[in-house]
Write a structure and sequence with these properties.
The structure holds two protein chains of two kinds. By secondary structure, chain A is mainly alpha-helical. Chain A contains eight helices and four strands, in the order αααααββββααα. Chain A has a two-stranded antiparallel ribbon with strand order 1-4. Chain A has a two-stranded antiparallel sheet with strand order 2-3. In chain A, strand 2 and strand 3 form a beta hairpin. In chain A, helix 3 runs antiparallel to helix 7. The longest helix of chain A is centred in the C-terminal third of the chain and has 73 residues. By secondary structure, chain B is mainly alpha-helical. The longest helix of chain B has about 80 residues. The chains are: A mainly alpha, B mainly alpha. Chains A and B meet through helix 4, helix 5 and helix 6 of A and helix 1 and helix 2 of B.
Chain lengths: ~375, ~120
């Protein structure tokens, strides 16, 4: 456990990016190679100032990105939280539905007892008249909806954290491509055109005399490669701005939510204990009342009696399965609390290697829990 | 069970139960259930079932009371999650805003280019 205190182990209020692995060095090299290749292939009439400008811009963008760090580790941790949340939401929803269903069944069995209850002889008060309208459900519709709304909100929260920590870059890519293209168009309108290297030697025969001619063709001031370089640099600037926004705001949101997630996990764990207690009582009532009926009912068709007796083990199996599901859910809650706390610690820069290892383990455990839940969701006997 | 005394037959326990009283009822219920499971005589079984279910009814009432008490806590968590989701929605909007602002620059540059093209054609 991460300890009972709600606050994180802050060593300062600034976000540290130490330890983050980035691929921006190879990114820089790629831009540089692309631009050098482009330059070598051309024999530009220009002095190369524009090209150096683009390279400088790309280099500056890369430095910006290196300085800001990257959001990849945060996205991985956010994904681990989402993976740990999914089984909690699914299993808690199933747990409430299961507990309500067996409670309703127990109420049905209890109805027989209450309906047939014989009043004791006077002066003792008569037995109350059974009225099915007075039967109370385990949880009212409003109570169920409140709990499901909280679980849906939790799922939306973890999905949003994943989305903002690893934003879809398609819009940014398209915008950068569009701006790169527009700027290249402007450059080609304003800057003088370049010329290609002599590419062809032709022998021209004029009146018996032969002459050699070299042919050069006019090229745009900004080549396709330079345009790509500009688009990549703009994209990098956009990513830097996004990264800066995420790093300035996401830690505060997640840190504020950390004690709430802890409270929610504890609250759900408490309710699991209640559901477990209630399911025990309800399953016992159903099995015991059915057993009593089969032991005392006279005149029951032997074949029907046999079939009813054979249904008892299935009820016992359902009881064990329900108990096992609640046990798994309890474990999933602990893991959710820990993975969220680890994410909050990562965002605060307080993520020693041991916590990183725990996150990795918990991420895998979240996946296993999801698979395990799916297997439990199969109908009995299949 | 120590000093905790389960209310005598016919008396109604106060719900919610104290933790000690609750534990006493749970212990009693477990013993009654064991007795039910060990009995095959129909007459005795009926009597044991009635006793066990009466104890179970008290625990059930306590369970329902506890679930009702939790409603306030769920509402508080719901409010906190709602606030976090609103903040994340705003952050997602700001992130999308970066791309849209770059797109605006691109559109403006494209429009200038079109105008220049028209002017040069004149």
């Amino acid at each position: 456990m991460m300890g009972s205190k709600n606050c994180l182990d802050n060593r300062g209020d600034r976000v540290s990016h130490a330890g983050m692995r980035c691929n921006w060095v190879s990114f820089a090299a790629r831009i540089d190679r692309q631009l050098s290749k482009d330059r070598d292939a051309r024999n530009s009439r220009r002095d190369g100032t524009g090209l150096r400008g683009v390279r400088l811009l790309a280099g500056a963008m890369v430095l910006c990105l290196c300085a800001s760090g990257c959001t990849k580790p945060i996205a991985e941790h956010a994904t681990a939280v989402a993976a740990a949340t999914a089984p909690v939401v699914d299993q808690a929803t199933a747990a409430y539905a299961g507990a309500i269903a067996i409670h309703d069944q127990a109420e049905n069995f209890d109805a027989v007892t209450e309906f047939e209850k014989i009043s004791p002889p006077p002066p003792a008060p008569p037995a109350p008249v059974y009225n099915p309208r007075t039967v109370e459900p385990l949880l009212s519709q409003e109570q169920v909806e409140l709990r499901l709304a909280v679980l849906k909100g939790l799922q939306a929260y973890t999905k949003s954290v994943v989305a903002v920590s690893d934003p879809d870059s398609k819009d940014l890519d398209d915008a950068a491509k569009s701006l790169g293209g527009s700027l290249a168009g402007l450059g080609n309108s304003f800057l003088p055109a370049g010329m290609t290297a002599p590419s062809k030697e032709t022998i021209v025969v004029t009146g018996g005399n032969t002459t050699n001619e070299t042919i050069s063709t006019q090229t745009p001031a900004i080549s396709a490669g330079e345009q790509k370089g500009m688009s990549v640099a703009i994209d990098a600037l956009g990513q830097y701005l996004v990264s800066r926004k995420v790093k300035s705001e996401l830690p505060g949101i997640v840190e504020k939510m950390d004690p709430e997630i802890k409270d929610l996990c504890e609250l759900l764990a408490k309710e699991i204990d209640i559901l477990s207690s209630q399911e025990t009582i309800d399953f016992n009532l159903v099995i015991d009342r059915q057993t009593l009926f089969l032991r005392t009912a006279s005149g029951l068709d032997p074949e029907v009696r046999r079939e009813q007796i054979m249904k008892l083990p299935e009820l016992a199996r359902q009881q064990k399965q329900a108990a096992q599901q609640l046990k798994v859910l309890r474990a999933a809650l602990v893991k959710l609390e820990m993975t969220h706390h680890a994410l909050a610690a990562e965002l605060q820069g307080n993520n020693p290697e041991s916590i990183k290892q725990k996150i990795s383990d918990l991420g895998a455990a979240g996946g296993n829990l999801g698979k395990f839940y799916s297997s439990l969701a199969q109908p009995a006997g299949k | 069970m120590g000093d905790v005394v389960v209310p005598p037959a016919g008396a109604t326990p106060t719900i919610p139960l104290t933790s000690q009283t609750r534990q006493a009822y749970e212990d009693l219920y477990a013993k009654a259930e064991l007795a039910v499971q060990a009995t095959s005589d129909g007459t005795i079984l009926g009597s044991l079932n009635d006793t066990k279910d009466a104890i179970g009814a008290v625990i059930s009432a306590d369970n329902q009371a506890q679930l009702a008490q939790d409603d306030a806590s769920f509402k508080a968590v719901q409010t906190a999650i709602g606030a976090a989701n609103d903040a994340l929605k705003k952050l997602a909007g700001d992130i999308a805003g970066v791309a849209s602002k770059i797109k605006v620059f691109g559109d403006v540059a494209g429009a200038i280019n079109v105008v220049l093209g028209l002017v040069s054609a004149l």
